[in-house]
Amino acid sequence: MKVQWNGVYPALTTKFTADDQLDLDLFAHNLEAQLSGGVEGIILGGTLGESSVLEVDEKERLVKFAIEQVAGRVPVVLNIAEGSTREALKQAELGEKWGADGLMILPPMRYKSDHRETVTYFKTVANSTSLPMMIYNNPVDYKILVTLDMFEELTECDNIQAIKESTRDVSNVTRLINRFGDRYKILCGVDTLAMEELCLGAHGWVAGLVCAFPAETVAVYKLVKAGRLEEARQLYRWFLPLLELDIHPKLVQYIKLAEAEVGIGSEQVRPPRLPLIGAERERVLGTIREGLANRPELPELDAVAAH
């Protein structure tokens, strides 16, 4: 299925059972909630998906299961976050073999590559696959900034089509558009900056709290794109305390707690992560429950254009 890189793309959490196996039944339940909410693609094996602790056979099962469940309704994108070019090439090959529709790729993990190394890494992987790719630009968490000059060199690769913009600098959306026009699709990758970046021209939102609140996330996107900014502002103001759960080192635990609280997930994480306990859990749960207590009625969106 062709990836358009528009709209809301949830970075899905990976569901686990109490004995640390993939919980595909619960994954399917959450996936249906996302599709019912109006998302336009899904991303597997990202940071929220606990990619660093997933085994290759588990990624294969997730991708193939998701493709079967989605049944062509939206594209399925697989994340690549590897320390070596060799392993990234292998993951790209496997993703294509398993039937993924696209790839999201981070710069090399653990080693802080320079300009030439970063560009060479992305080009090498892009040239190895026919799948469309989105580059995940997150220097805050992963220490490598993909600069405008790097993106200039990467225009040579037709299948590098999109950017997950997570620099935390909303001005970068405008810089990218000024420099590249419509060459790249831009998707906001930071929940707390999503409305701002969509107003500046971002095409989509790679979202985190969507895992627990799909309808509200899609509503913010659609309202902004329809120019219904006051309605979007009111919804976003309600949403912001919840969205802030996405910008904490324990975002996986926080968002999984939210999923559990709304009935479309569980708190099970894979060690070394551990479920929240004590005062921290109560604090996060308080934020979630306050949001649920004041959950707004969503405006009519059937007639709102998606893009």
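Next protein, fold it too.
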Amino acid sequence: MLTTRHGVRVLAAADLDEFLALARRDPVVNVFAIHRAQTTSLEPRWLGGEMWGRYEGGELVAACHVAANLVPVQATPEDAVVFAERALARRRTASTIVGPQQAVLPFWETVGPAWGAPRDARWDQRHLVLAGEPEVDPDPGVRLTARTDLDVLYPACVAMYTEEVGVSPEIGGGSDLYRTRVVQLISRGWSFARFDRGELVFKAEVACATPDAAQIQGVWVPPHRRGEGLAVSGMAAVVAHVRQRISPAVSLYVNEWNAPARRAYERVGFRETARFATVMF
């Protein structure tokens, strides 16, 4: 393994404590990377990729999760360029680059000419956090989902993903893998929904969690039920469930142009703490 006082090297299990100390400087923004590190011990076979660390004077100053999701961790613009230059020396494996704007933008400016046009790029996403009680009453009908809900829940998950990402998760034979992910979230107690006479009218999931924070994904209300306040009371219920059972702080990020969602999250009590950007291939 490369050991260096300066530069970039692949982190391993022996580096876990040092990595966690770095990432916990902002445990909510870095919840994904912390979750991945804790569940894989930075072993490449479990990461499905690598965790890179940048050192200055023998100290770990920044990191980058390099797998299907490429995620800078505590990276300055200078750190991001260094990681990007290393990325250019290998084949692109990432399907998504996501993280704080200050790192994603210079990373993309460096790799973009070689990596080609992305399928989509979202340069202004609001990272929101709620670390207290919701400011509206939770919907008492929102509950943990169960395997018996799968026939109704799974099509809603596909619809949400397709609407949000722009392509179906089932393309290319991905339905089995995506269904497995939905079942995994149910099994972990990370999937929430409200049903109205057998119809799913609100859903959301925990994407990743640590003892410090949980990140929400997949918030969705079917188009014909939007405008009824289901997302507001539903998200209040999710926050209450998560803070009681999983983590004290609840986070998510939302596209700048999604005004209805931003208004709903603000009513629940979420406040902006950072700006994210996402590039998708």
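About the second fold: The chain has a mean pLDDT of 96.
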